Amino acid sequence: MKKDWILTQELFDELLSWLNPDREQAGLEYEDLRCRLIKLFTCRRCLEPEELTDETINRVANKVPEIKDSYVGPRAPYFFAVANRVHLESLRPKTDLGSPPPPPPSENIEMEYDCLERCMEQQTSANRRLVLEYYRGEKKAKIEHRRKLAEQRGIALNALRIRAHRIRSALQGCVEKCISQTSG
Amino acid sequence: MQYLLGQGPPEDSLSLEERLVTDGEFYNELLITEDDLIDQYLSGELSESEQESFENHFLATPERRRKVRFGRAFNKYVIAVEVVPDEDASSEDVLEGMLDVPKPPPKPWYYLFLPSQNPVLSYSLAAALLLIIATASWLALRKPIGPSRDPARILAVTLTPGLTRGESGGSNRLTIPADVGTVRLQLELAADEYQAYHAELLSSSGEAILSQNNLKSERINGRLIVPVDVAAGLIQAGDFRLKLSGINTSEKLESIGSYSFRSVSK
Fold it and tell me: Cα(first)–Cα(last) distance of chain B, in Å?
C-alpha cells in the first residue's frame, strides 16, 4: 500500500477546521471518526485497523486544502470513501486475515479476573451496581430483567443499554491496562 | 448480528459499514451488539453454525479476542458477586456507596462465641481472638512502609479543554509523586448547564480506562470545575484524554469537551 501521506501540524489544523469551525467540537468529531474507522477496519478483519485508520485520516487531511471550498455536506461519507480505497490497497499484499482461523481465546482468565476486581473497586457504587444488575441472568429472562431495570430507574431501555455498555468498555480498558502493568 | 458473524449478503455489508462510519448511534448500537454476541457465545446460546462463524469470522481480530477474554472474566465476576436488591434505584445519590454492601448479618460477629451453654469458654475465645488481631495489626504497622501509594494523598490538577496531537503536551502536563494515591482532575467548565456530568478517561489509543457518572460541578477559587478522582496507578506515563459530557433531562449524554494531558515520569 502506498504510504507517503504525511500529516503536518498545519494539515491537521486544517482538517480540524474542515470538520468543525469550533476547535473543541472538531476535536470531538475527529476522535469519534477515528474510533468508527478503527471499528470499520476491524469489522473487515484487517490485522492493523489503527494503521489503516491513520492512513485514511492522513490522506483526507492531505486532500482538505484542495476540496474544502467545494465540498458540501457531512464529512464522514468522504472519510468512508477514502477508507474503502485504503482497504482495497491493503488487500493487495494480502494483509486481510485468511484461514486457518486462530484458536478460541484461552479460558485461563485468572489475571483478567484479578484485575477486574481491582477495576470494579475504582468504579462508583452506582456504576458497579448497574453493570452487575444489567448483565445478570440468561436468555429471555435477561431481556425481561433489563426492561424492568430500566423501568425501575425511570430511563429508556436504550439509555440503560448505552450506560451499561460504557461502564463495561471502561472496565475492559482498565483491565487491559492493569494486565499490561502486571505482566511488565 | 448476522453481519458481525459474516453471514449477511455482501451488498448489505457495505451499506451497514457506511452507516457505521457516518451514523454515531448506529456505531454505538454495533458496539453493544458485539458485547451481546460475545455474552451469547460464552453462555452457549449460539446455534452450532453461529458458533462456528463466531470462531472463524468474528474472532479473527486481536481486538475482538481481547473482548472475549474480558467477557469471560466479566461474566464470571457478575455470577460470583451478589448484588443487594435496590429498593429505590432512582435516588442513586442518596444511596451511593452503600447499596452494594451486603446486608449485615442479623446478629453480631461475636455471637458465635457466646453459646449459652458455656459463656466462660466463649468469652475466653473472643478475648484470645482480639489479642491475636491486635498483635497482628501492631506487627503490620511496625513494618517500614515502602513507596506504596496512599489513596488519601491527593494531587489536584486543573485541566483546561484542548487538544495535544502534534503538540508537546502544552500546559496540561502532570507529574505524579510516587506516594500520591489519587489524582483529582479538575475539569474547567465555561458554564454549569447540567445537573450532573459524565467523564470518560481514554488512553492515547482511544481505549477507555475509567468511566464516572453522576459527577457534580463545584466552584473552586472562583473557577467552575468538575472533579474526577482517578487512582494514580491508572495514570502511567503517556498521553490521556478525558471526555466530559453533560447528562440532560432525558438521561442522555451531551458532549461538552475534551481535556488532554500528558503524564510524565518523575
Answer: 47
Mutate to test the interface with B, among A158, A166, A167 (most CBs of B within 10 A): A166
- Supply A92's cell numbers: 493487495
Convert A81-94 to b/e letters by CB count within 10 Å (16 or more is b). Answer: ebbbebbeebeeee
C-alpha cell recorded at residue B256: 461538552
- Find the CB nearest B22 among A47, A80, A122: A80
Provide the shortest C-alpha distance from residue B173 to chain A (in Å). 19
Give DSSP secondary structure letters for B10-50.
HHHHHHHHHHHHH-HHHHHHHHHHHHHHHHHHHTT-S-HHH
Report the 10 Å Cβ neighbour count for B101: 9
CA nearest to B162 within chain A: A24
**How close does chain B come to A2, measured CA to CA in Å?**
23
- The complex's ipTM works out to 0.83
- Comparing CB atoms, the residue among A27, A117, A173 nearest residue B207 is A173
The vertex-A36 CA angle with A106 and A127, nearest 5°, equals 65
Q: B218: which strand partners?
A: B225
Long-range contacts of B106-111 (CB under 8 A, 24+ apart): none
Q: What angle do CA A179, B1, B3 make, to 5 degrees?
A: 100
CB nearest to A105's CB, from B68, B86, B90: B68
Name the residue with cell 444488575. A133
Identify the three-state secondary structure at position B65. Answer: helix
A77-127: pLDDT as tens digits? 999 999 999 999 988 655 455 555 565 666 677 888 999 999 999 888 888
A87 sits in the region (left: phi over 0; alpha: psi -120 to 50; else beta) called alpha
Q: How many CB atoms lie within 10 A of CB A108?
A: 10
- Check whether the bond before A103 is cis (ω within 30° of 0): no
| A154·B69 Cβ contact <8 A | no
For CA atoms A65, A66, A69, A70, the dihedral sign is negative
Residues 6 or more apart whose CB falls under 8 angstroms from that of B160 comprise B171, B172, B188, B259
Q: What's the predicted TM-score (pTM) here? A: 0.59
Name the amino acid, one letter, at B125: L
| Cβ-based contacts under 8 A for chains A and B | 225
DSSP A104: P
